[in-house]
Specification:
Chain A: Residues 362-380, 400-429 form the 4Fe-4S ferredoxin-type domain. The complex is a heterodimer of chains A (448) and B (334). Chain A has helices spanning 124-133, 146-150, 174-181, 183-197, 211-219, 241-249, 269-278, 311-317, 374-378, 385-393, 397-402, 414-418, 425-447; strands at 3-4, 28-29, 36-39, 49-50, 57-58, 63-66, 75-76, 81-90, 96-104, 160-165, 201-207, 227-232, 264-268, 287-293, 301-306, 324-329, 336-337, 351-356. With 448 residues, chain A is of the alpha/beta class. The termini of chain A are far apart. In chain B, helix 2 (44-67) packs parallel to helix 4, helix 3 (78-89) runs parallel beside helix 5 and helix 4 (96-108) packs across helix 5. Chain B is an all-alpha fold. The chains are: A alpha/beta (448), B mainly alpha (334).
Chain lengths: 448, 334
């Protein structure tokens, strides 16, 4: 049986979960859209480099773009079809970035072309290469290239491998469904991850609102694997790496450091399943599970959707009401607003949450900070968002960094969620960090 | 098919259902029973004083906002709280023109010069009261018995005194328990004190109703429970020790707890979020500091009561506490 721990990190918040509408719905295959839009920038790092030509016919699973350096991953064709155009395509930020338009063949089959399989007997380096070749990035939403994260730096070692099945964002249930439906892939992925990291122990962390998944996974743990399942109390932002490590291992990642500084590597559970499914066949990512939900959607659910499927097509298929006015890619706490329906889903898209005109509150009045301390009680990193907010307003960016640890903030938004004065704290911090990074880059440039 | 323009916002896209005006409104709700009891105890005079105080605060806030070309902020309810609190700290037959002047000073000097809601260093109601105590020492220590028979019909002459006229003191007046103790070593029954049967300032007499309001705010998570707990525990413990040392010289800890403005101050004034520290440890220090000062002023000071000064000094200490007491940031050394 799994271990039911009382342990969790300090502070944090309890937003309404809103998961019950989709957490019992099995993953369903989504139809191919008439046009697929593929930006080359689907991961943090250098965009992939296109290796196909306009007019070329491609097969499902075929390489369309190769990794452009170490901090990059390749892109595979999600469908069999024809390259219509190589041009700039819209992405969620509102920018146009290099990419391509792909027109699927009508009635094209589901077969996926295979590359070089990576056997379990492969070396750690070969496994990391295989993970990069499969185009795998963190599917939890961060889209950080997974092979980079798994590379243990010289002089460090990995004792604990944490599989992140927390999914603390309200509304989202993709990881929940993956854990219930893809247990074998998850354990296969863990085998590869154990090999790649050299970890001694694997803990799958799951929040108490997914007890069925915890029970299911702990019942399927292969005898030869050092895996345990640990259930932790429901709290946001427990899915953040640092918080998960504190909840499960009781350790703190040093300020400015990485999980490997406490001998730990954290991998999202859906990413793990993807590794387990793709590597034995040498395939690349063609699709991913996405929760589509929100008051403005009639056919809510968890869908397996080809990468590059346009948002507009998805919303039409799931019966979005005509008055949709807000569309978030990701969860409501950290997700990003879509400015247009002409963008497409990417590897990092974990959810699509849609609100209609009457579902969202109008912008509320912003009051001055009354120093109620709610943000201080909410911040999982024990920062002082109230003070940081006041400093941001007076543009005291250096003080924010040097005295109040601004750079530790990972923008979970808990402070903004609880603020009774509606002060957009996390937005201030995002802007301040941007300004500080820019200043730093400029001063480095002038020093050279 | 989708014709609406999309609304773009920065995450988080959901918000907790709480707002500053909602918090303020709930403080007013928590104060209402205190107001009602004081009107029941002191009649129409108390009603007039509280109403004048609230009116004075709202008018001052509104006019100052207008004169500085800002949108009026009276709708955030904070000026109402200041008005009620100031009224509750005054004697039941306090002249209305003085009350009004105190209200103007409370908002103008206690709040507006600092920049309005969120920026005031001191509790505005106490700033107003401190001014009144300095300017009108006789009127503010002229007491009036509670539960008089004609209290709902008889408006005291001193309440309606003309501005700047000679102070008119009504025929009947009495001492408060604290001054009776201070100057004559007479203590009142604790149960009478707690039930509000003994005279005092308008809203200070009935401790259990004040505590009820505090419990409501703590339950709604709109008040920091540590502040009243720290103040009351400090006062109780310290005066308890003194009482054990010599119960002829020092009053009993329960008498200390239920007399004067301690309850009202600890529950509704020291807890003013703006003037109190932001971290839990800072709040404990702040509360203990105020508790210590209250005992010191009451027992060794020249005044019978010290709650007001103790809280104002606590407010003054808050920025320093916030500067020194900072939570240990995650991932840094203890």
């Amino acid at each position: 049986m799994f271990l039911l721990a009382k342990n969790t990190f300090s502070h944090g918040i309890h937003p309404p979960e809103n998961k019950e509408e989709t957490n019992r719905l099995p993953i369903r295959q989504f139809p191919f859209a008439p046009l697929i839009i593929l930006p080359m920038q689907q991961h943090i790092g250098t965009p992939s480099q296109i290796i196909v030509k306009e007019g070329q016919e491609v097969a499902r699973g075929q390489l369309l773009a190769k990794a452009n350096g170490y901090m990059s991953v390749p892109l595979h064709s999600p469908v069999s079809g024809k390259i219509r155009k190589i041009a700039n395509v819209p992405v969620i930020s509102g920018q146009m970035v290099p990419g391509l338009y792909l027109e699927p063949f009508p009635f094209s089959g589901q077969e996926i072309s295979e590359g070089k399989p990576i056997p379990l007997s492969a070396s750690p380096e070969e496994i990391l290469q295989g993970i990069q070749d499969a185009g795998i990035v963190g599917l939890g939403g961060a889209a950080f290239p997974t092979h980079v994260k798994l590379k243990i730096p010289e002089g460090k070692k990995c004792d604990h491998l944490l599989i992140n099945g927390i999914e603390c964002e309200p509304y989202l249930t993709t990881d929940h469904r993956v854990m219930l439906e893809q247990a074998d892939d998850i354990f296969m992925g863990i085998r590869y991850l154990l090999k790649a990291t050299g970890a001694k122990e694997v803990i799958i962390g799951i929040e108490a609102n997914k007890l069925d998944a915890a029970e299911h996974l702990s019942g399927k743990i292969p005898k030869d694997l050092p895996v345990s399942v640990q259930v932790v109390p429901v709290k946001y932002p427990q899915g953040a790496e640092k918080m998960l490590i504190t909840s499960i291992l009781g350790k703190e990642v040093p300020s400015g450091g990485l999980p490997i500084d406490v001998n730990t590597v954290v991998v999202n559970v859906a990413t793990t399943a993807e590794i387990g499914r793709l590597l034995p066949h040498g395939q690349g990512i063609q699709e991913r599970v996405i929760t589509i939900t929100g008051p403005a959607i009639s056919k809510k659910g968890n869908y397996l959707i080809p990468i590059g499927t346009p948002l507009r097509y998805i919303l039409e298929q799931v019966g979005a009401s005509k008055d949709i006015c807000e569309v978030f890619m990701g969860g409501p706490m950290m997700g990003v607003s879509a400015s247009s329906l002409d963008i497409s889903i990417v590897k990092g898209t974990s959810g699509i949450v849609v609100f209609g005109e009457n579902d969202t509150k109008k912008t509320e009045k912003i009051y001055p900070c009354i120093k109620c301390g709610a943000c201080v009680d909410a911040c999982p990193l024990f920062l002082n968002p109230s003070k940081l907010g006041i400093l941001a307003k007076s543009e005291a960016y250096e003080t924010m960094v040097e005295e109040y640890n601004l750079m530790d903030c990972f923008e979970c938004g808990s402070c903004t969620y609880v603020c009774p004065s509606n002060i957009p704290l996390v937005q201030y911090f995002r802007l301040s960090k941007g300004i500080i990074r820019k200043r730093k880059a400029n001063s480095q440039k002038s020093n050279v | 098919m989708f014709s609406k323009t999309l609304h773009i916002s920065s995450s988080p896209h959901i918000k907790k259902d709480v707002s500053t005006d909602l918090i303020m409104k709930n403080v007013v709700y928590a104060l209402l029973p205190v107001v009602l009891f004081s009107i029941y105890a002191f009649g129409i005079n108390a009603l007039l004083v509280i109403a004048t105080s609230v009116f004075g605060c709202l008018l001052t806030e509104h006019l100052l906002c207008r004169w500085s070309n800002r949108e009026s902020t009276i709708s955030d309810w904070s000026a109402v709280i200041t008005g009620i609190l100031l009224g509750l700290t005054l004697p039941p037959i306090f002249p209305l023109w003085m009350t009004f002047l105190g209200a103007v000073l409370a908002i103008g000097l206690g709040k507006f010069v600092f920049g309005g809601l969120g920026y005031n260093a001191f509790n505005p109601a106490l700033v107003g009261r401190a001014f009144l105590q300095a300017a009108f020492p006789v009127a503010i220590t002229t007491w009036h018995p509670s539960f008089l028979e004609d209290r709902f019909f008889h408006i005291s002459k001193s309440v309606l005194a003309l501005p700047f006229a000679e102070p008119i003191v009504d025929g009947i007046s009495g001492a408060t328990p604290l001054s009776a103790f201070k100057f004559d070593k007479i203590t009142a029954e604790t149960s009478d004190l707690a039930l509000g049967l003994i005279s005092g300032s308008i809203g200070e007499t009935c401790s259990w109703i004040i505590v009820l309001g505090g419990i409501y705010l703590i339950y709604r998570k709109m008040m920091n429970w540590r502040i009243p707990v720290a103040i009351l525990a400090t006062v109780y413990l310290l005066s308890g020790i003194l009482f054990l040392l010599d119960n002829q010289v020092y009053p009993s800890p329960l008498f200390m707890l239920f007399s004067g403005g301690l309850m009202l101050g600890a529950v509704f004034m020291a807890t003013d979020m703006v003037g109190s520290p932001i971290t839990p440890l800072g709040v404990w220090i702040y509360g203990v500091f105020i508790g210590l000062l209250i005992v010191v002023i009451r027992i060794w000071g020249g005044l019978p009561e010290g709650v007001m000064y103790a809280i104002l000094l606590g407010n003054a200490l808050t920025p320093q506490i916030d500067k020194i007491i900072r939570p240990r940031v995650y991932g840094t050394k203890r």
